[in-house]
Design goal:
The protein is of the alpha+beta class. It is built from four helices and five strands. It has one domain (2-128): ph1033 like domains (ph1033 like fold), CATH 3.10.590.10. The radius of gyration is 15 Å and the shape is globular. The chain binds a DNA duplex through residues 2, 4, 28-29, 50-52, 55, 109, 126-131.
Length: 147
Amino acid sequence: MKSEPSEFSIDDLKSNPDKTEPWDGVRNYQARNMMRDEMKKGDLVFFYHSNCDMPGVVGIMTINKEGYPDPTAFDPNDKHFDPKSDPDKPRWILVDVKYKRKLKRTISLAELKEQKYLENMKLLQRGNRLSVMPVTKKEWDYILSLE
DNA sequence: GCCAACGTTGGC
DNA sequence: GCCAACGTTGGC
């Protein structure tokens, strides 16, 4: 899962009182579908910093609460307000994540791209801008082996 | 249903 | 700040 550290970073998550956070504001259907259908409580997630000096994997989280309607879609004062999302038929879904640990170092996008083993990884495919995307078990283990 | 125009993402 | 690559919108 990607976040711009200037908006919400791994340290922000770590410093939350209960170390959890509703992953709100996602307005992409593919990303929504993954949060709604695929992510189960206890699943492990990489926290990825995007749009910053060193984009890359910075930490590990778990899914703390499975998919439920994104309340920011109903709030006219929220920048992610979506008037087309009817509270009776919510359009946007989020999950709660929980801090697990930071990686010992940032495993940068540049470094990931150097790994032949990871060439088929979703994150590294051309033009992929999804903020939520799947990681296979093998990719997960390989990335952690770089730590 | 097509597709041009526009908006967004995110690396560089 | 640039721009490639998508996604969305809306006229037809």
